[in-house]
Structures are given as structure tokens and as C-alpha cells.
Amino acid sequence: MKKLNTQVVIIGSGPAGLLLGQLLYKAGIEHVLLEQRSAEYVAARIRAGILEQVSVDLLHLAGIDQHLKQQGLPHSGIEILSHGTKYRIDLSALTQGKQVTVYGQTEVTKDLMQARQQEQLSSFYEAQNVQIHDFDNAPKVTFDYQGEQYQIDCEFIAGCDGYHGVSRASIPQERIQTFEKVYPFGWLGLLADVPPVADELIYVQSKRGFALCSMRSNTRSRYYLQVPLTDKVENWSDEQFWEELKLRLDPESREKLVTGTSLEKSIAPLRSFVTEPMRFGKLFLAGDAAHIVPPTGAKGLNLAASDIVYLASALIEYYQHGSEQGIEQYSQKCLQRVWKAERFSWWMTNLLHDFEGDTAFEKKLKQAELNYILGSEAGQATLAENYVGLPCEVEHLRQLLVEGNCQKAS
Ligand code: APR
Ligand code: PHB
Fold first, then answer.
1. What's this model's pTM, rounded to 2 decimal places?
2. Could you give the CA distance from residue 222 to residue 191 in angstroms, rounded to a whole number?
3. What is the CATH code of the structural domain delimited by 2-50+103-180+271-356+391-402?
4. 284-336: pLDDT as tens digits
């Protein structure tokens, strides 16, 4: 058994774990990152692509926003196509100038992994059989790596290992409460090197079901179709995908749509899920390990980022100022923002998708609500305010990092 010790062990090399690692490095806090998959596998995963300003600011604080600045696409609005009528939601006008940035999570992950490699930060990819021990008192993490058994003694463990990870699974049932809603459909996603059908995202509500027209750049597009949970991706040829998408679009978009060969095609289930609390002694859950949102509100990556704002701040306050206030408040601060994003994501999903189980009355009510939202400045403003992202304490984290650098310099 090889024994190591460090201050923080991060489990998971997704956006949450990588962002935390970069911020701890910036603050001079020792950490080790463990990931069960290979670095190549992690870097190749196709995920979402919308960054709230909070996430853009965090990537800047982490010092890895060079590519984002060059390739990110600022968007000041989205379109909602409701049964053939298009409405533009002017996000910036409705939120005193806020916007979102189109930049793939894949790119975020690659940027963070590249920074990690350049800074030669301690990472174990393809770490197997990761186990958490004694997280209330003297935390330890054991794992197998290249045929050797390892044990890392640490002071804190950040469970950034996603919905299927070991961290949440390590919590005794009596200490954890989970809340879940599974949706009766999935999203069939397709990525292709074709120009986007429009300059901004189009959320489509049609009698054939939901569709989403998104993008990764001006030459790479991402499309989604609501499909039954019984559908299999192998039953969808590219041609069938494009034909179904056209049937859900308005005539103008149908005419402009450029189709092509898929680079990636997959079906993802939709669920809402929250774990309470998000801290257990010296073990913190962050990102998908603690919560899942349906992708309709583009909140998954952005919630992982806001958890890391609070977790990085808490750990820096502890190590730089000996304060445990951030640690004590971590769960409550995260969950306040998490539940508001869960509500928004559930609400957008509810309004824009076709729910077979809805009664005729419920369908009428949903359409009336969407018509109200789209036809009212107040209604559009509430959608815009949530879509660009609710407030988060990034400025506090920035100040902690600046103070830390000043202390180092003095
Ligand atoms: N040991 C080590 N690593 C693990 C383990 C384990 N037992 N279980 C899971 N992991 C790794 C996964 O392989 C993955 O790389 O943890 C990482 C978790 O990353 P994500 O699932 O991306 O979660 P997170 O970092 O919270 O980012 C959330 O990613 O999945 C999307 O839609 C989601 O946009 C959201 C974002
Ligand atoms: C994406 O581009 O993958 C995307 C964009 C907006 C969403 C969901 C996914 O709401």
C-alpha cells in the first residue's frame, strides 16, 4: 500500500472537480484529483454548451479563459417557437445587460485538463475502486492505480464524481435525503459540423414534441429532439433525425436548416434530483454528485460551477483565515441556488415538452401559461432572469484569491 497525504482529495475530473482543482492550486492549497476514466475518455465527452456569466467569471478566476475569450459566442437572446410562432426573448434587455456564452462543456473540460497538465498537478486517471473512509474525523481515500493500492490521508474530500459516483453512495441512508422526478421522455442529441440554423438558440414547442436548435460554433451545431424513453439511438438514422427536426420547425428555419453527417448521436434521460444536505463532516458533494437538472434550462454545468464558487471559498477561508464559516454554510448556500435552478429547469421542461399523461385541461393550462410568459414583459423577464443565471458570490471568491496572492507576495 502506497501512502500519500494532502489537504484535499477531489474525486472526479468533470467540470466540478477540475474547476475546484484549479482554484485550490491558485490559492496554494494542496490537492490530489482521482478519476476513474482515462483522460482521453473524459476529454472526449459531449455535453452541454451554455455558460452563465457566473461560470465565465469563474473560468477567468481559474485563469483558463483564454480559449473561451477567443471562441466563446456571447448570446444576448434566445428564441422560443411555440406552435409555429417565434418569440425572441431579449435576455440582455430584460436583465440589465446580462448574457450567456455558447462554449462547449467539452472545451471547458479540455481547457481545465490542459492547465492541470501544464501545472503538473497531482492527478490519477484510471483510478479504480475508489473508496472513502472516516469522512467525519480523519478522512482517507483508498484506490487502485496501475496495479498498486494507494491510501491518501487528507483533511477534506470533494465528491465531484457525478450522479453515479462513489461519494454520495458512501453516505449512510439515515444521513441523507434525496428528492427526484424522472421525466417520461428523453432527448435525442445530434452533433454535426454544419452551420447553425439561426444566430441564437431556438427552443421549439410543437405538437410532435420538443426540439432544440443549439450550436458549438459558427460551423458546428447541436440539435435535440424529445423522444419516447423506449427509443434506441440505433433506430435513428441521421436522415430520420433531420426529417423529424424539419417537421418540428417553422417554414423559415426548415428552409435554412443545413443537414450533415452526425459526429455524435445519443439519447439522454431527463431527471430532476437533489441531495440534502451537500456536506457530511469533511466530505462535500458538488455538481452532479449532489443534483441533476433536465437540460432544458442549460443549468447542469452552471450549477456545478456555482457549487465550486462556494466550496473553493469555504476551503480558502479555512486554510487562509482559519475560518470554518464557509464550511458550515456550504450546503445551505448551494441548495438555495440549486433549488431555484431546479424549479426553473422543471418549469421550462414542463412548458415546452409534450407530456402524454397530461389531461386536456392540463395541456390547455400549460399553453395558457406559456402564452402569458411569451406575451408579457414581466413574464419574459422572469424567464430571462433565470436563464442568464441567478446571483452567486463570485466576487467574494475573487477577493479571497486576491488577498491570498497579496499575502504570498508580502
Ligand atoms: N471514482 C473516480 N471518478 C469517478 C467515480 C469514481 N467512483 N465515479 C464517477 N467518476 C468521475 C466520472 O468519470 C466523471 O469524469 O467523476 C466525473 C464526474 O463528472 P460529471 O459527471 O461531468 O459531473 P460534474 O463535474 O459535476 O459536472 C456536471 O457535467 O454531466 C454533466 O450535465 C452535467 O453539465 C453537467 C456537468
Ligand atoms: C446545448 O447546446 O447542448 C444545450 C443548449 C441549451 C440547453 C441544453 C443544451 O438548454
1. 0.97
2. 5
3. 3.50.50.60
4. 999 999 999 999 999 999 999 999 999 999 999 999 999 999 999 999 999 99
Residue from 107, 166, 288, 296 whose mutation best tests the ligand 1 pocket (most atoms within 8 A of CB): 288
Catalytic residue of the set 15, 103, 295, 353: 295
Task: Give the dihedral sign, CA 171/173/176/177.
Answer: positive
Confidence category of residue 409, pLDDT binned at 50, 70, 90: low
Enumerate the domain spans of the chain.
Answer: 2-50+103-180+271-356+391-402
pLDDT of residue 65: 95
Instruction: Identify the nearest ligand to the CA of 270 by its number.
Output: 1
Distance, in Å, from the CA atom of 84 to the CA atom of 282, rounded to the nearest integer, reads 52
Q: Judge if the beta carbon of residue 294 lies within 6 A of ligand 1.
A: no
- For residue 408, the model assigns a pLDDT of 62
* Per-residue pLDDT, 410: 62
CA nearest 186: which of 222, 229, 223, 245?
229
Whether the pLDDT of residue 400 is over 90: the answer is yes
Per-residue model confidence (pLDDT) at position 405: 74
Among 100, 221, 222, the mutation site with the greatest number of ligand 2 atoms within 8 A of its Cβ is: 222
